Amino acid sequence: MKHDTENLAKRAGQAKTAALDLAYSAGELRDRALEAMSRALEERVQEILEANRKDVEKAEADVAKGALAQPLLKRLMMSESKLKDMVEGILSVRDLPDPLGRTLEARELDQGLRLFKVTVPIGVIGVVFESRPDVVPQIASLCMKSGNAVIMKGGKEALESNRVLGKCLRDAAVEVGAPAGWLQVIETREEVAEILALHQYIDLMIPRGSNRFVQYVMEHTKIPVLGHSDGICHMYVHASADPDMACQLVLDAKMQYPAVCNAIETLLVDEQLAGTWLPSAVAKLREAGVVLKGDERVVSACGEEQVSLASEADWSTEYLDHVLSVRVVSSPAEAIDHINRYGSHHTDAIVAQDDQVAKRFLREVDSSSCMCNASTRFADGFRYGLGAEIGISTNKIHSRGPVGLEGLIIYKYILEGQGHLVSTYAGDGAKPFTHRALREEWSETS
After folding, report:
1. E strands of 335-445, at which residues?
2. Domain parsing of the chain, residue ranges
3. Which tens digit of pLDDT belongs to each residue from 279-288?
């Protein structure tokens, strides 16, 4: 199929224009658009499910041929209950405070010369994500609420679902006053390569996929990139852990939804538990359908018929499936070192009743979310109260962890004076600045 690069650039230009309009739109308009988007999903549920059925049928055939991984098929499937969750997700975003126009800082430089640091949208967001269609309304709602336009592409497995969802959400918002072009859905890999060159229109790229794909995006664009490559998450069970709690947390963190980035891929167990708690936990994991790979101490404690020997590569593998690597560690320091070496800085947890050990883990593990006595599956924008998330970032600039509204806004400085000149504050006899903190909000009407 031949692609019209000129047309794609034109569409990106339309998104840029829409972003400028949204940036100065009233919060009431954006909330009204979100309400219309939620209604559209409710009204077109059968059309959306029919599109998803076509995607699932094709995906099942691809899985049978070995052309598609089973976890991707699981991510693809939609239902009326999932659509209901999408609607609730959009409304939860609507109910969040308006993130735009907030004064982060106010300072008097001199009498009558006031500086304000005010939140504004980023502009045009480019998002490329995996086969989960529920990501479409999450991204669209967050971008609408934060006043950003968005160009998105989902996995080819969800082509029909994403196409219908994108049109449904875009048209509903436009009908109540949102600017045309605010949401663009692209469908091919070639178009992804082309938008990476459109840095004059796109302000931020958020890739959600394999490590290889994220690295490709970073290496082939001048656009700033936000996101994470892998979700190699850990749970460390310390000797002080409550045994029953530890079993329940491990099962939840692995099996509540194995095909997502915040499910654990490695279990670290204190050596004091290797002969007692570990064999029991392994039995329960196997009963739940988990395939286990362990180091020599795990195999020795549990038996080769229960656990196969892990390779060095297993410690760095994101399975996204019913597979778990298990290692025995001699101390909290060894657990922390393992996580910081092999982990992806995504989400890691400790199960412990020893408060000092837990606090050390939370302080020293270098991940975007660190948890104590809680499942890693809580690392989610909706569960964190962010309304929804556009992705999870392991970056250490701008935004980290589940990226909600705060990750889609930036700020600008607004300086209001009364004819003030820099020359007044320079050279001999320069007038000093007051640099006095103000308790004022910047307002367009003040």
Report:
1. 347-351, 369-372, 391-393, 401-403, 409-416, 436-437
2. 5-100+119-225+404-408, 233-381
3. 999 999 999 9
